[in-house]
Design a protein that fits this description.
This protein has nine helices and six strands. By secondary structure, it is an alpha+beta fold. It has a single domain, classed as Outer membrane efflux proteins (OEP) (Up-down Bundle). It has a four-stranded antiparallel sheet, with no helix packed on it. It has a two-stranded antiparallel ribbon with strand order 2-3.
Length: 446
C-alpha cells in the first residue's frame, strides 16, 4: 500500500509538458540587443526572418499534424493485436451437487490470458479514401506553409525598403534644416543692418522650427521602421540595424498573360485550394462507401491454469462481416454534406483564381506606375534645385526676399523626399508582384 501511495504521489507531481513554464503565455520579452554584425543584404535579412518566424514554424507544424492524421487513417488497414490477462479468486468451489455428492468444475484461483488479432480484409474503400483525404489535407497544409513563407518574405522586403526610405527622409530633412538655419541666420544678420524686413526673420525661424519638428517625426519613423524589421527577424527591437541599399530596381519585363500563367502555376494558396478539392472528393467517397459491408478476419490464442478445463490452451478464429442496415440516416446525411463540401471547395478555388487574376493585374499596374514616377520625381528635383539656385541669386541681388528662398528650399526638400519614395516604391511594387505570381526572392531555397 505504501508503495502504491508513493507511486501516486510521483505520478501527481509529473505533470505533462503542456503545464511546463516554457509552454505558458510569455510575458515581456527580455532579449538583449544583438551586436551589430555589419551591413546585411536584403537576402540575408529574409533568410534570418524566415529562420526565426514563429508563423512559419506553426505552419510547418500544421503540415506535420496533417501527415500524422494520414498515419492514423493507415492504422485502420493494419492488423490490430490485443492481449488480455485475468486472475480470478473465488471463495467457493465452482460446481454443482449431483445425487447428493458435490462435483467440482473449476478451481478457486484461476489465471487466464489471450492474444487476439483482428485483420481487416475489405471495407469497399472507406479506409483507403480516408487515407487519401488525410494525405490531401497534408498537401494543403504544406502549400499553406509555402504561402506563409512568401507572405513573411514580402513583409520583410517591405520593412527593409521602409527602413531605407525612412533613413533617406531623415537625411533630406537634416540637410533642409541646415539650409533653413543658414537662411534664418542670414535673415537675422540682414535685419540688424536694415536690409531685411521683420517678417523675413519670423518666416525663417518659423520654418526652422517646423523643420525641427519634421526631423523629430522622420527620426521616429526611422526608429519604428528599424524596430519592425528587427521584429520580423526575431531580434530585440533595439538592435542596431545595418543594411545595404539594393540600388535602383531594374525594369520589370514580361506581360500580364505571362505573369498570370506564372501565378496560376506557382501560387501556393491556389495549390492549397486544389488539394482541398481533392481532399473533399476523397472524404465524399469514403462517406459514400459506408453503405457497403465490412469484412475482417479474427483469431485468438487462449490459455488458462484451471486444471478442470480439458484443454488449457486453444486457438480460435473466423471471418466477420458487418452489413449496415439502418443508422438513422447518418450515412446519407454525411454523403450529402460531403458532396456539398466538394462543390464549395470548387467554388472557393474558382473564386481564388479570379482574385489572383485581379491581384496580378493590380500589381502590374502598380509596378508600371511606380517605375514611371521615378523619372518624373527626378525631373522635379532638377527643377526645384534650379529654382532654388536662381532664387538665391536673386536674393543676393536684392530682387527676392528671404521668404522666397524659404519657399524654394521647402519645394526642394519635398521633391527630394518624393524622389526617395518613388525610388523605393519600385522595390515595394516588385515585391508585391513577385508575391502575387508565387515567386520567392530566394528561388534557390524553394
Amino acid at each position: 500500500m505504501k508503495r502504491l501511495l508513493a507511486l501516486l504521489v510521483v505520478a501527481g507531481c509529473a505533470t505533462p509538458h503542456g503545464d511546463d513554464a516554457a509552454y505558458l503565455p510569455a510575458g515581456r520579452p527580455r532579449r538583449e540587443p544583438a551586436p551589430a554584425t555589419g551591413p546585411m543584404t536584403l537576402e540575408a535579412c529574409v533568410r534570418e526572418a524566415l529562420g526565426q518566424s514563429r508563423a512559419l514554424r506553426m505552419a510547418d507544424r500544421r503540415a506535420l499534424i496533417e501527415r500524422d492524421r494520414a498515419d492514423d487513417a493507415l492504422a485502420a488497414l493494419l492488423p490490430h493485436l490485443k492481449a488480455e490477462g485475468r486472475y480470478e479468486v473465488r471463495n467457493n468451489d465452482p460446481g454443482a451437487v449431483f445425487g447428493g455428492a458435490p462435483v467440482v468444475a473449476g478451481e478457486r484461483r484461476v489465471a487466464s490470458g489471450s492474444v487476439t488479432a483482428l485483420v481487416p480484409v475489405w471495407d469497399f474503400g472507406v479506409t483507403v479514401n480516408a487515407m487519401e483525404a488525410a494525405r490531401r489535407e497534408g498537401d494543403r497544409a504544406g502549400h499553406e506553409a509555402k504561402d506563409a513563407r512568401l507572405r513573411a518574405e514580402r513583409e520583410v522586403v517591405l520593412a527593409y525598403v521602409r527602413v531605407l526610405e525612412a533613413r533617406g527622409i531623415v537625411r533630406v530633412v537634416e540637410e533642409s534644416l541646415k539650409a533653413v538655419g543658414r537662411q534664418a541666420e542670414a535673415a537675422r544678420e540682414a535685419r540688424l543692418h536694415g536690409l531685411a524686413a521683420a517678417n523675413d526673420v519670423v518666416a525663417a525661424e518659423a520654418q526652422e522650427a517646423e523643420r525641427r519638428q519634421q526631423l523629430l517625426s522622420a527620426r521616429n519613423n526611422a526608429t519604428f521602421a528599424e524596430a519592425l524589421l528587427n521584429r520580423l527577424m526575431g531580434r530585440d527591437l533595439r538592435t542596431p540595424v545595418e543594411i545595404e541599399d539594393p540600388g535602383d530596381a531594374p525594369p520589370r519585363g514580361g506581360d500580364y498573360d505571362a505573369d498570370l500563367d506564372e501565378a496560376l502555376a506557382r501560387r501556393p494558396d491556389l495549390a492549397a485550394m486544389r488539394s482541398g478539392i481533392e481532399a473533399s472528393q476523397a472524404r465524399w467517397r469514403s462517406t459514400r462507401d459506408g453503405f457497403f459491408p465490412r469484412v475482417w478476419l479474427y483469431g485468438s490464442a487462449n490459455g488458462t491454469t484451471d486444471d478442470f478445463v480439458l484443454h488449457k490452451a486453444w486457438l480460435s478464429g473466423g471471418v466477420g462481416i458487418q452489413i449496415p442496415l439502418f443508422d438513422g440516416g447518418a450515412t446519407i446525411a454525411g454523403a450529402r454534406r460531403s458532396e456539398r463540401e466538394v462543390d464549395q471547395a470548387v467554388d472557393r478555388h474558382a473564386e481564388g483564381v479570379d482574385d489572383a487574376a485581379l491581384s496580378v493585374l493590380k500589381a502590374r499596374l502598380d509596378v508600371g506606375e511606380a517605375e514611371a514616377q521615378v523619372p518624373v520625381s527626378l525631373k522635379a528635383v532638377e527643377l526645384a534645385t534650379e529654382n532654388l539656385r536662381v532664387t538665391k541669386d536673386m536674393y543676393a541681388q536684392g530682387v527676392a526676399t528671404g521668404t522666397d528662398v524659404l519657399v524654394e528650399e521647402d519645394r526642394l526638400a519635398r521633391a527630394l523626399a518624393a524622389a526617395l519614395r518613388a525610388r523605393y516604391a519600385v522595390h515595394a511594387a516588385h515585391a508585391r508582384l513577385r508575391f502575387e505570381t508565387g515567386h520567392s526572392l530566394l528561388e534557390e531555397d524553394r
